[in-house]
User: Which sequence fits this backbone?
């Protein structure tokens, strides 16, 4: 009898421990998407990963600030996986490890070391690999379903090439943007809430670039390395705001179907990075000496000279626009050949600039092959974003306890 009692308690302890582990891994359902489910454990692990990648403390307030976005990402991942599997898309374990190693920047031969590190930090490797699997399946699915549908005509390439090579005072911008889409037309409440959460995280000192990777609802191909966008390819509202912004500035506003936050990194006139300038710099310790000099007194054949009133002359030949400092860029770009600036203040001296020659460096000019790649990327991204948006709207999603 004593033996039976002991045996009963041993079984109870084993069952209880197993049940505890299952409960820890499961806890409770939050969302079901067709036959896929998301549990509180899934969400907790994803929040933990997000906070770690953003260098944020794992606190209640920080968890609350990313919770909704992480849940939405989990929903999108399940939708991607479902759609990929419907189309018989799969991957091997080796492909998954290679893909994960590229994303997390570790050697594919040291996967066990990466796994051990995650486990020592309290992360569930299965949750991470499930995320990577969804993204890999989606990537393969897009290549299979979208790539073959993109058609680019010779006329389209020529038109874009002609437009880009005009090089007549059009702006291009290097900027990041995050778009928070409305769940339905006219429903601004949730998108505004997500935007405010993003801005709160920015206030905590996280870089815009790191945050945008976690929160952006716009699909971007991995191969899209350059962020320079010519103004013709930007909607009017965004373009006009970018023109008024200063480098480094962050702006949020209500867009057509959601809220947008964007950061301007740099702006320039299209093609200016391919332009070489030859110019003369006049410098002096006092402003009056430079004011007395007429532009026709300065010849572009001059190289280095000391003029009256100790004005120093120096000629610069074929300097690339991107290699010049800010004051040279801003003033030379506005001059026509033969023109001279007014007196400029640049500590510890005053100076004037005369533009001698401005010419395009054809060696670095954009080619038609480059144009074709740009058009392909734009079309691919647009079709991918439209596809996931439509799938999100048409998928049967059920929320529990909400």
Assistant:
């Amino acid at each position: 009898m004593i033996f039976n009692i002991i045996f009963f308690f041993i079984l109870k302890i084993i069952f209880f421990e197993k049940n505890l582990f299952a409960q820890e891994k499961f806890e409770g359902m939050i969302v079901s998407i067709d036959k896929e489910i998301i549990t509180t454990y899934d969400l907790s692990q994803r929040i933990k990963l997000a906070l770690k990648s953003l260098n944020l403390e794992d606190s209640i307030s920080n968890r609350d600030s990313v919770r909704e976005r992480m849940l939405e990402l989990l929903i999108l991942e399940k939708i991607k996986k479902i759609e990929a599997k419907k189309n018989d898309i799969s991957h091997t374990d080796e492909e998954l490890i290679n893909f994960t190693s590229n994303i997390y920047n570790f050697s594919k031969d040291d996967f066990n070391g990466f796994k051990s590190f995650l486990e020592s930090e309290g992360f569930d490797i299965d949750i991470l690999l499930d995320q990577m699997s969804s993204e890999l399946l989606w990537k393969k699915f897009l290549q299979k379903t979208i790539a073959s549908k993109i058609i680019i005509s010779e006329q389209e390439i020529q038109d874009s090439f002609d437009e880009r090579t005009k090089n007549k005072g059009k702006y291009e911008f290097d900027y990041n943007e995050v778009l928070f889409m409305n769940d339905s037309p006219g429903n601004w409440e949730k998108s505004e809430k997500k935007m405010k959460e993003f801005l709160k995280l920015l206030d905590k000192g996280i870089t815009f670039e790191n945050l945008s990777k976690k929160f952006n609802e716009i699909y971007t191909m991995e191969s899209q390395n350059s962020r320079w966008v010519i103004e013709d390819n930007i909607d009017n509202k965004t373009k006009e705001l970018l023109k008024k912004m200063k480098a480094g500035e962050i702006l949020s506003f209500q867009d057509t179907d959601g809220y947008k936050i964007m950061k301007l990194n740099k702006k320039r006139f299209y093609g200016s990075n391919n332009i070489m300038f030859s110019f003369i710099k006049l410098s002096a310790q006092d402003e009056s000496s430079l004011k007395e000099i007429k532009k026709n007194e300065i010849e572009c054949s001059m190289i280095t000279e000391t003029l009256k009133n100790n004005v120093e002359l120096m000629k610069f030949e074929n300097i690339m626009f991107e290699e010049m400092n800010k004051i040279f860029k801003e003033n030379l770009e506005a001059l026509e050949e033969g023109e001279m600036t007014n007196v400029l203040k640049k500590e510890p001296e005053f100076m004037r600039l005369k533009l001698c020659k401005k010419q395009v460096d054809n060696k670095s000019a954009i080619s038609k092959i480059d144009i074709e790649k740009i058009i392909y990327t734009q079309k691919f991204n647009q079709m991918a974003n439209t596809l996931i948006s439509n799938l999100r709207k048409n998928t049967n999603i059920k929320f529990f306890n909400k």
